[in-house]
Amino acid sequence: MGVLMQRSRLYMAFILLAIPSALWGQSKRTFTVDDALNVTSASVAAATDDARWLAVTVSTPRGRMGTDHFRFGDPTYVGPSKADLMVMDAETGGARPVFEESVQVQSLSWSPDGSRLAFRRYVDERVRLEVWNRDSGLVEMVNLSPSRELAWGGPLIWFPDGSGLLVALRTPSWAQEARAAYEAMEFGPIVVQDSSEPFLSWDAVRNRGSLMELARVDLDSGAVTELAQEGSYQDLRIAEDGSHITYTTSTPLKTSYERGEGTEYAYFKLDLTEGAAPVEVMEKGERRIRPNWKPDGSGFVYAREGDVFFKSPGADSAQNLTEEYRVPLTEADSTKRSFSIDRWDPEGEALLLRAQDGYYLMEIGEEPELVWAFPGESRKEWGEAPRLSILQWTEDGRYLYASRAVRDRWDRGLVRYDLQGNRGEILVSDTDVYRSWTVAEDGSRVVFRRSDGDRPDEIWTADGDFGDAKPLTDFNSWLDNVVLSKSQLIKYYDVDGEELYGVLHLPANYEEGKAYPLVAEIYETFFDNGYSYSAQTLAAQGWMVLRPSVDLEIGFPGEAWMKGVTTAINSLMDKGMVDGRQLGIHGTSYGGYAASLIITQTDRFAAAINISGKVNIISFLGDSEKITTRNYNAAEEGQDRLGATLWEQPQKYWEHSAVVNADRITTPHLLLTGHGDWNVPDTNTREMYYALRRLGKEVVWVNYMRAGHGAGRAGLEEDYRDHWRRIIEWYDTHFKKAVEEDEKGS
Fold first, then answer.
1. Which domains does the chain show, CATH number per domain?
2. Which residues contact 353 (CB under 8 A, 6 or more apart)?
3. pTM above 0.70, yes or no
């Protein structure tokens, strides 16, 4: 495997040198916090159309450390995210580095002929446009003429003839103005916010980050041709023949507390002839559509409320293509068929639509034809069919490739559907975890990430019928010398009789028939497994780690944690797998909030930890000023699921603020925060520390002064180690104490 294998061996040598000599005589050792820092992640950032040439980024968690969390909201700040960049040949397995050192790159894109790789690279606080040549192996920086500043973000799209790129530029004054606006809000010296202004002040600052100009860069000369003036652009596309571009603009109008309001969307087509002006192809408005253009640019489709519409640029209005076909699903079910858009066929003449009962093929003006029916004869049965996601429609129009996942067990893989014979073929289906599928346009090759469900992903390839599947990377072979936790899918019922799933990670060196301590790591719902550094770290201590699901109900989310989490634990205790005296619970962000909330309702946990989670949902509405209205939206109709404003249902906010019920807490509570957390400020979590201390309860608050959301995990390497040391010691101390007290009592 050439350079990749050499790098892998170097990483492995580094790890082995870090292992204490006393462990060399053992066959295997347990997973450590340092192991979590050393696990390597490889991802395909870009692939050529034939899926042969791959741009691969290779990183460890260290590459993302060092973020200045206090600069959140500064449009000019680019946080660290470094990785090794390599180019791999999926056919031979060979690979070579693009740079000798780790770099910060984004928007990697292969030229149409696959001979060059373009990307943006961040160096010395400047954004460079660079192109790597596959034949020479050299990287060339494109010097823009006239000199302009590239945006970090936005489009990087090749023109079909390979002569240039569509890019995003900043205006000459953008950086100075954006930085000045940020500093005025952050440092004052006097900050005034006025409700007569259309925007909350931090909204006005953040809106600057999306502003850019569109331009074409000629790669031979570096010449810059401006195409569109400063704005916020989405849905960018270049026509197949390079004659025009299409795009959407979003213009903020005001700060809005309601979803779908406060931004105006407009839709344009721009011919790339000298002097041409953008043509508005759709009436602008605050309701956004997602235009899906025909390859020849003669029109586009979009979906709205179950219907599909077609609009040509010159038409006064859009044509509803599906209205007359939205009939009841069955004689027994009056629900109307609802369509969504998947993609155009390779020729750009027909659409693949999805409905409740299957995939439909439709030409403009013709009746949709069911070409891939989901199994079953009712909406319930269709909803229980395996999840499908179309990955590729082969260029000859014959095959659809789709990822496939069964809903009630771990059975995942790839399916190929033959549109000529209307029959599907499962190419691979097993308990492994598959991600990031890339399928060649002709269907001759697939590239994907694969894991056994417990180990980190590696990059694999196979031919079009999934023959000769083989790994292309093996960065984490050093884990062969480490005992890893094994995961299981569990099914249980909450107190309302709702069927739920959870992921259980068994302790390292698990022995069947033995009852173990258990740590519940909570958030919302869990089903799929996959490598989890937190589960591996905790399971290495000899504990079970459970990720239970909860059925969160609008207006009553607090009850769901008790109904779902405790019944999941009970199901394992009934099997004799868990020592009910040694139960721990923790979560991060929303999960941390839930951990604090659940211990106001039960005393069965020996220890609890809140990592960067709020404790007072009332003060939380306005104490994260840089994210403006997000917390109002989250409480009223988002993740918090209270379903009402503070003034409509004040009791809901009161009941769902853990600090209000702190007097009910008997569980020792550890609070971990990051001082630079812009999402859940440390001051919100601090309220619980002061409350529990005032009430004479056992509580410890650890505030990582260089970290952000995620506490020590979002700080420096020493913060990361301290974070996990404290978690492990907290559980270990209180698990042992619970057993001692139980034995004394008996």
1. 485-741 (3.40.50.1820)
2. 308, 322, 339, 340, 341, 342, 359, 360, 361, 362, 368
3. yes
